[in-house]
Design a protein that fits this description.
Elements: H1 3-9, E1 13-15, H2 18-28, H3 37-41, H4 59-71, H5 76-89, H6 99-106, E2 124-137, H7 141-147, E3 154-162, E4 168-175, H8 184-189, E5 194-199, H9 207-220, E6 227-229, H10 244-256, H11 258-264, H12 271-283, H13 293-313, E7 318-320
Parallel strand pairs: 2-5, 5-6
Antiparallel strand pairs: 1-7, 2-3, 3-4
Helix pairs in contact: 4-5, 4-13, 5-6, 10-11
Length: about 325
């Protein structure tokens, strides 16, 4: 690899809005709580005039308790006590869901799709796709090495799609045996905007993925075929019946090399989604708290919503040096 190519691939950046970004990081640790009049009024749901028991807590109450649980890394019982103390300090007379109710209601919790005003736009967006494993249970590598035991470990796969600004626009939690490429259509179904470019790593390479992305977008926006930037696998062959974009990538790499292909297609832009996964594991956690798979899905969705809210408070603006 020549020095010129290495220099272009490893650009250095600096943050130009550090004071504002630093203030937003400090604001993330602010533990001041407030509740709007609308939230207080809807905390206890109205009677539905149906036979049987009536719900004691609204969807808002269950969602608020779950967000607090994830944000402060609390167990179910600790979340119940923590929320009770908050309600008491605020001088409100509101019931707090117990840990059993919280676990049961999470399974059927319908989370409303939050649309930020700045996302309502007519132009196209670029999306970056990646996935990573999230642990469920298991003591860890060091404990296994220390006691010479092969303990059972299980994990889930968190699939994310972000835009150029780093906000999570689609998410999906699956079993660990689900392939990355099989979740592309589920992520695209969650995106209403017109997609200009799709970035993904080599794990998504294949003609079916290219065809799936193009077909999904043409269902919503027939006039636009998105540009797909996925590095072909080594020794990939050009096929007559294969996708045209993938064949062009293979042909370009054969002629100029993979390094030049990465520079021309700005492939390193995909690293933003890896940074988002790192943020999720650092802030929300590397391990899911819930045991039920449906509850785990709810937990992952709310965790992504928390990251988007933190990102809304402030984000770094980096420029090449």
């Amino acid at each position: 690899m020549s020095k010129k190519h290495d220099k272009n691939l490893r650009k250095k950046y600096k943050v130009i809005n550090w004071p504002d970004y630093e203030a937003s990081l400090i604001h993330r640790g602010n533990v001041t709580f407030w509740m709007t009049d609308e939230a207080i009024a809807t905390w206890v749901p109205n009677k539905n005039n149906k036979r049987g028991g009536q719900p004691k807590y609204s969807v808002l109450a269950i969602e608020t308790a779950t967000i607090i649980r994830l944000l402060f890394s609390k167990r179910l019982r600790q979340t119940e006590g923590f929320l009770k103390s908050i309600i008491k300090l605020m001088g409100l007379n509101l019931p707090v869901p117990d840990h059993t109710t919280l676990s049961r209601r999470m399974e059927k919790l319908e989370i409303a799709k939050k649309v930020i005003e700045k996302k309502i736009r007519t132009g196209s967006i670029n999306i970056l796709i990646d996935s990573s494993g999230i642990k469920i249970y298991g003591e860890g590598e060091w404990n296994e090495f220390k006691h010479c035991q092969n303990q059972r470990k299980t994990w889930r796969k968190l699939h994310l799609a972000i835009d150029d600004e780093g906000e999570i626009v689609a998410k999906e939690l699956t079993e660990n045996n689900v392939g990355d490429s099989s979740c592309v259509d589920k992520l695209l179904d969650q995106i209403d905007q017109r997609i200009d470019t799709v970035y993904a790593d080599g794990g998504y390479d294949g003609n079916p993925v290219y065809d799936k992305i193009e077909a999904k977008q043409q269902e919503k926006h027939p006039s636009k075929i998105p540009k797909i930037i996925i590095p072909p696998k080594k020794h990939s062959k050009i096929r007559r019946a294969g996708n045209a974009q993938r064949n062009k990538h293979i042909q370009f790499i054969r002629k100029y090399g993979r390094t030049v292909w990465e520079i021309v297609n700005n492939y390193r832009h995909r690293l933003l989604v890896e940074n988002t996964i790192y943020r999720y594991k650092t802030i929300i956690g590397r391990k899911l708290h819930s045991r039920n798979f449906t509850n785990q899905k709810t937990e992952a969705i709310l965790g992504c919503n928390i990251l988007n809210k933190m990102f809304e408070l402030g984000k770094p603006i980096s420029v090449p040096v």
